[in-house]
Amino acid sequence: MMLTKLRKFIVNRQKVSSWHVNHMCSCRTGMILKGLISQAFLRRNYSSLPENDIKSLRSIINPPMTKIRNIGIMAHIDAGKTTTTERILYYSGYTRSLGDVDDGDTVTDFMAQERERGITIQSAAVTFDWKGYRVNLIDTPGHVDFTLEVERCLRVLDGAVAVFDASAGVEAQTLTVWRQADKHHVPRICFLNKMDKTGASFNCAIDSIREKLKTKPLLLQLPIGEAKAFRGLVDVVTMEKVIWTPVSNSDDGKQFVREPLTELNDPELLTEAKEARNALIEQVADLDDEFADLVLGEFIENFDLLPAEKLHPAIRRVTMTQRAVPVLCGSALKNKGVQPLLDAITMYLPSPDERNSEFLQWYKDDLCGLAFKVLHDKQRGPLVFVRIYSGTMKPQSAVHNINGNCTERISRLLLPFADQHIEIPSLTAGNIALAVGLKQTSTGDTIVSSKASALAAARRAGRNEGKIHRKNMETESLLLAGVEIPEPVFFCTIEPPSVGKQPELDRALNCLQREDPSLKVRLDPDSGQTVLCGMGELHIEIINDRIKREYGVETFLGPLQIAYRETILNSGRATDTLDRTLGEKRHSVTVELEVRPCAREKSEVVPVIEYAENIREELLQEFQEAIENGIRSAYLQGPLLGFPVQDVAVTLCSLTLHPGTSTTVVSACVSRCVQKALKKADQQVLEPLMNLEVTVTGDYLSSILADLAQRRGSIQEIQSRQDNKVVVGSVPLAEMMGYSTVLRTLSSGTATFALELSNYQAMNLQDQNALLSRRSGLA
Ligand SMILES: Nc1nc2c(ncn2[C@@H]2O[C@H](COP(=O)(O)OP(=O)(O)OP(=O)(O)O)[C@@H](O)[C@H]2O)c(=O)[nH]1
After folding, report:
1. Residue nearest to atom 27 of ligand 1 (CA)
2. In angstroms, rounded to a whole number, what is the distance separating the alpha carbons of residues 653 and 496?
3. What is the mean pLDDT of residues 641-645?
4. Which reactions is this enzyme annotated as catalysing (predicted)?
5. 143: annotated binding-site residue?
6. Domains and their CATH numbers in the chain
7. What is the pairing mode between strands 714-721 and 752-762?
8. Is 647 annotated as a binding residue?
């Protein structure tokens, strides 16, 4: 019997490690302290799922694809994603008590650091059932430092819920995440949370969604009361009033009353709701021809006669095609509005088979999945979250990793139910699985059933396009698109307490890198020290913290430094020869090349490579690759300070090769020659320029502006948002070290800020000289 095969065991959350980062800060000292105090509650016990839920597993192990929803929750820091997720798990029966972020006992924020800091650092996947639907929910972090984590999740999601603080409307990070969701064409629903909060305004929040997100909000609900008076909502589609009232001393929001809105029970609200419904019908008819035909044909005289059952599918169509976004409201903290949100998720967001996945035709029924997250569990080793796109995944089976070109064995397969992992015998397409035993798989890898299956799919893909692919192109075409990994902007050295501990540190860094591709680790060629490169101060701080806590290695961090870039202001030309005899063989190459400035749209360390006409035609593929490798390696270390070079084009003017010269010698000579040419040009240091958004109450605005002026900041605009001012501008990263502490002091802990890389800009001569002197130890 299926049930007997289910072995249930508890995951000790503190042993499960994981990862993420970014740079946005909230001044929530009180909350952090509360989190620390609540350490005693960290081991909240979820040892048994309610009996009914265990039974329901029989049906939900492999539900029909149409009944699956892979959903992400995304938002700005503090909008209430974690609180909303907790309520969702509670109402769907997967937890027995309500977790509280402020008490540090939520299910999804399970890393110790998260509980202490009261923030969501890494996204945790949670599976649950709601009214016959299987929902896989990913709680994503709201900090800019963790943008990559958000994007990685968006890649595997079919729909998302954007949670807003109704008193703040659209905030900085929401914009970033919204753009990411646009990029991945993820249909969305908006949830205006915190309707109970002082300053909450449904209309202002809607206006800001319309203006800032440039989208069309579909008002499916109206709030009944705002701020302290918030009691419930009107379902505009069904014209029902939904009220949460405490039942027998319990205020957990499980019970609520849904009743038709009538002239008798609330005439004013009825008029308001009728207007909202008519506007909604017109708006949807404008966006959907099928619905427009229906309305024009049967209901043109009286929209009131249009039944909810006819409106729902039209709303679903415009949501799925991202022509508009349904908006709902509530207060997760006060336990209002979450169940209708769950209904909307199942009703309006797509199932896996409604999303376009072109490559699926090549895999047919063979297994194809994307590893979108790796966690390290001390007992069970790496736990890999896999979104299965086609075929079936089974424990005790081998799978082939296309990126790593290796075959591995899955020992067990788990479903992540709240904070328990349930062992399952198989999982089919559309689901999100947790695979145990994959030791080589990293975040972003594509997993298939075997190498032969990958090749068969490659042949189908090749045939489809009517051309023969080169071997590596075949493989590439079968990879599920990964996530763009942003360049780290901070770095610092990291050392173990003794040389003997270095292997342990290396092992820890290896594991952390598999989890988090935005963490880069390199060896300083001059000092031999290990260097950590990350996305923000918080990123590096958390990595260091995890190495200590989870891997037991005491570490010493060097001072945090900025990742500058270098470029040139005019062209430079150089010639170089490398002539070596190894054994009996002579390797000799002479190169002449020119470097010149070449502005690019994006700040990328990707060289533009050109060839003089006569060279290109005669050049063998292997030598072309050797030349380009040489140029790329020269780009990694600029002539001024050894930072990567950008916005420089290289033209290979001439190349003389002695027959039999190895490609390694060619690469080395080209690399040296590029360095020589760069030195001949006028060089320039580029510094990271950050987009900054500070939200502050009016009283503190002037001191914050004065401080930014001293930081070489430039202010683009100051917006008003409720009682707050939002300062939007840009500032060099070098001036933002320790800004969270300064901001906390300047604003008595009330301000928040978001920082995100804009681009790299030239330093002025004075600052550049000061930097060069500092780096050479002269100042
Ligand atoms: N008034 C009010 N406060 C809320 C509501 N929902 C959450 N909060 C509070 O807002 C704060 C942030 O809530 P979280 O759920 O941690 O928000 P988050 O979006 O997960 O935050 P990060 O993980 O740090 O990005 C906490 O103090 C919550 O108690 C709500 O509906 N109303």
Report:
1. 102
2. 47
3. 90
4. GTP + H2O = GDP + phosphate + H(+)
5. yes
6. 65-355 (3.40.50.300), 360-464 (2.40.30.10), 490-563 (3.30.70.870), 567-681 (3.30.230.10), 685-776 (3.30.70.240)
7. unpaired
8. no
